């Protein structure tokens, strides 16, 4: 398996001083294969910390609307599973309205990706739409956002009953996501720091077989999350086994 850390909108030190301590304990070096960051890292020290998670290797970071570090691209595409899975990465302020699946779907089509990661809203979202998967890891620090898009901070996931939010009405909830990529199946674990504890939810997505770009358009298929499934608060070391069988 390949373990990919997805996080963003840290806003250190302008809006908050650091990640939650329990997050930093989970993100020990030697377990994560790749880091994908939606931007708004804001300082070099935090960038170096993210690199330390993958042993000093390069990380994939896009420019947020508050980033001043030079050389960051506005978007990136990474491939996995012998190029059979294309993952796009943007900050998300490019989509109007913020977090709109219609707007994000248009960006995903332009980038020709199967899976689009974005941020900007500071609220977690995981949804299948137009035959693609869309993930927003929220804000890793719980930093406040000056933008209001009508959504509540928390975890939103597409279900048969529509969008379900388990978030609260207060400040944004610190969160990040960990993706376990096995071929064209992506199991996403969403970690949230709520009331002093780390809560974890699991969502699984499989790339539709034989779908090209034109075939995917209009296929708005809802997905069902692992509602109520709370995973143990550990991150496994990379092994050929899935997290479910690797001592979670």
UniProtKB/TrEMBL annotation:
Gene Ontology CC terms: cytosol; retromer complex
Question: Boundaries of each Calcineurin-like phosphoesterase domain copy?
Answer: 4-146
Note the SUPFAM superfamilies from the entry: Metallo-dependent phosphatases
Q: Quick one: a GO biological-process term for this protein? A: protein transport
Q: Where is this region: Disordered?
A: 216-248
The answer, when asked if Transport is one of the entry's keywords, is yes
A Pfam family recorded for this sequence = Metallophos_2
Where do the TM regions start and end? none
Q: Which PANTHER family match?
A: VACUOLAR SORTING PROTEIN VPS29 (PTHR11124)
Q: Could you say which protein family the record assigns here?
A: Belongs to the VPS29 family.
Name of the molecule in the record: Vacuolar protein sorting-associated protein 29
Q: Which organism is it from?
A: Lentinula guzmanii
């Amino acid at each position: 398996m390949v373990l990919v850390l997805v996080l963003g909108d840290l806003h250190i030190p302008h809006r908050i001083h650091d990640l939650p301590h329990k997050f930093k304990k989970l993100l020990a070096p030697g377990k994560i294969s790749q880091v994908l960051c939606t931007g708004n890292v804001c300082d070099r020290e935090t960038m170096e910390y993210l690199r330390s998670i993958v042993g000093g290797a390069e990380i994939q970071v896009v420019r947020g609307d508050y980033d001043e570090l030079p050389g960051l691209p506005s978007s990136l595409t990474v491939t996995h599973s012998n190029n059979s899975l294309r993952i796009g990465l943007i900050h998300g302020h490019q989509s109007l309205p913020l977090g709109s699946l219609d707007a994000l779907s248009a960006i995903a089509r332009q980038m020709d990706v199967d899976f689009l990661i974005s941020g900007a809203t500071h609220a977690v979202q995981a949804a299948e739409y137009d035959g693609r998967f869309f993930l927003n890891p929220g804000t890793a620090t719980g930093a406040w956002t000056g933008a209001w898009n009508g959504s509540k901070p928390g975890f939103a996931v597409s279900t048969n009953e529509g969008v379900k939010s388990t978030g609260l009405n207060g400040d944004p909830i610190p969160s990040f996501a960990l993706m376990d990529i096995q071929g064209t199946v992506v199991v996403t674990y969403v970690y949230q720091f709520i009331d002093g504890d780390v809560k974890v939810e699991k969502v699984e997505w499989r790339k539709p077989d034989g779908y090209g770009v034109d075939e995917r358009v209009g296929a708005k298929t809802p997905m069902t999350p692992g509602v109520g499934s709370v995973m143990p608060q550990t991150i496994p070391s990379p092994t050929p086994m899935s997290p479910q069988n690797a001592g979670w």
